[in-house]
Fold this sequence. Notes:
- The protein is an alpha/beta fold.
- The chain has a domain at 548-682: 3-Layer(aba) Sandwich (Glutaredoxin).
- It is 31% helix and 25% strand.
- The two termini are 17 Å apart.
- It contains 18 helices and 26 strands.
- It binds flavin-adenine dinucleotide.
- Flavin-adenine dinucleotide binds next to helix 2, strand 3, strand 9 and helix 10.
- Residues 58-415 form the FAD-binding domain.
- InterPro entries: FAD-bd (IPR002938), FAD/NAD-bd_sf (IPR036188), RIFMO-like (IPR050641).
- It comes from Chloropicon primus.
- Keywords: FAD, Flavoprotein.
Amino acid sequence: MASLIRGSWGGVGCWGRAGSRLEAALFPAGRCLRLQVAEIGSTSSGDKDPGNKREVLRTSVAIVGGGPTGVTLSLLLSSFGIRNVVLERKARVSNHPQAHFINTRTMEIFRQIGRLEERVRAKSPPMSEWRSFRYCEGVLGHTFGKIDHFEEYEGEESRDLSPTVVAHLSQNRLLPLMHEELEKCPSSTFLWGEEFLGLAPARDGVRMTTRSCRGEDRIVEADYLVGADGAHSLVREAVGIQMKGDGHMQSIMNVHFTSRALASSLKSEASEAMLYFVYNPSVVGVIVAHSIETGDFVAQIPFFPPVESVSKYTEEHCSNLLLSAIRRKVDLEIHNIKPWTMSALVADDFRRDRVFLAGDSAHLFPPAGGFGMNTGVQDAHNLAWKIAYVLRGSACPSILHTYSRERRKIAIKNTCLSIANFEETVKVARAFGLDPGLASGVLKVISQATKISPLQQPLERFGESLLTLGKLQTSSLSPLRPFQQMYLQGLLTQERSLRLLYPEEDIGFCYEDPDIEWSGSKFPKWPKARRSNFSPKIRTGCRFPHLELRLHCNAGAATLPQQDGVSIIDLIGEHKGSFLMLVLANSGRGKEFRSAVRDLQEESQFAVTTVFVNSNPGGAMEPGELLVDADLSHLEPQSDVAIVLRPDGHVARIFKLPIDLSSECLQRELLSLGLKPREKEHRNFEL
Ligand SMILES: Cc1cc2nc3c(=O)[nH]c(=O)nc-3n(C[C@H](O)[C@H](O)[C@H](O)COP(=O)(O)OP(=O)(O)OC[C@H]3O[C@@H](n4cnc5c(N)ncnc54)[C@H](O)[C@@H]3O)c2cc1C
């Protein structure tokens, strides 16, 4: 079981437990438990720092930040048996819902983490509640248009692409499920209320200083450090990596509220949707329905500082705005009101020596399209196996260089896509004569002028009047209303508005695609057609497409069918301790390949499992060999090839089997992928 230490940030009422239910009972909430580092099960010792008498915690990987990125990384490292410590400065999971859309690739990754995918699916509301977006005058008011995102992806078609499908579960409900999985991981230690303060000089590895919620300073030493510490990453700052792009696209006021009355009206009127884009003379904004069951909503309302000040958004003002956005008097409770800056930023590099950045610390996009959290989880998936293989001696440290190159490329792409998505929402606003870009421009001029103090108040009032005037164009009494409605219908029916499903970017992204050219300032326009028909391919750098396999197992001297309908995505996950080498050849070539692999593995053991596809090379399978049947015809693979798959499911190499296949030739291929013959003490490494 993972060790878990909890404490409230700010030094009051700390409490904790180190691993067991018994300890939780002995030290209930509110009671102080002195934290002994030596108690933390998965770390190596509780030595003292000689000069300062600070406790020293040693681990293989230190992760700063216990958001979705940090926790995913911890879970995945633990699945490789790699000791890791997560330092999280908060005392508990925040109750702000934040991200909520979980894409297919993230769900595939969750399938590799205990029963996480199954549990996320079970907690996710029924799809009828979130399958559409509504464009409306008010959540319970007139609807201008509605888009159902699943109309064309329903049924078998999406099942052909993956063993799983997308889900809708807010971050504050997802994280507790992840923590439950974490508690089952003996290699993970999660420290609540522990803040990373900075890096300290180190001869080998990484050394950092931290402070607990009780004000105790500590030294943490690790082989590697991963900064998953969000938008304002201190780890990023400590290693001097810059973020580039647009740091201020729009100011947004986030209002988290619950209203069971609103939820039950939506249900009884069959008007459920994931997002409500609201346009009326009093308020323009987006209402996110996080959970109809619990009545959890977040309103995202654009605001324009300095013409509008944060202090204007009092609970009373927000309550009035919400009622205007709902268009009906309902009971509601506001939980918090937080300004938020929408930006489009990507870090110059995702790695400096032994320090990596992942998630929001490395990239920030507009939320349109829901790529924020998903990209972070997928960063963790790319990084976990690389660190694990290097620490286990199965791969050379050079493999770690590929992390920044691969993930930064995807971050830049997802940023461009998210900006394009945001612009789609702006197009709809323009249908109502609202132009946030223009508003920002005018207000920028006003804000310059307001620096001259005698002009300040009149100009601020002028700015506010402009905003009100803009919103008036959304009035149902506007003479332009019929034209607005026609234009909007055009946008919605021509599928030119914001989408929810992006199969190509979700599961079709490719690490070998050419980089998008970006100088570090304005992001280039999203280069692709709005809607492309995605058909998966076997291509170097891409995720190997989902296939249903018939898996054979040994029965005496033969190998017989054992299990039908196993997805290759899951097979890769189950065998993540080794690369899979799919052999597509007739049984004669398969036999030659098998003997070359055996010769090679006898002298130097690489972390590789050979998978013979549709052709038995003869006799029963040996350890390190699998036999499967699969229909690959739609993927049009070449024959007489070996396809090498990495533990994250991406194709590392496709190589034609030469006529004179030898173990030397195979060795060259594997070494060039960064794999290393395992050292003797690691030869029995089984997951
Ligand atoms: C208000 C809001 C609304 C959002 N809505 C959406 C949405 O609708 N859809 C979407 O896809 N994305 C949304 N996002 C973005 C999404 O939530 C993030 O992309 C996602 O949370 C990133 O996860 P992460 O783990 O990388 O970072 P975070 O979730 O930010 O986690 C970082 C963690 O690091 C901890 N930390 C920071 N500094 C330190 C330190 N020095 N020491 C120890 N711990 C530290 C923090 O306490 C935090 O728990 C939203 C974000 C915000 C703020």
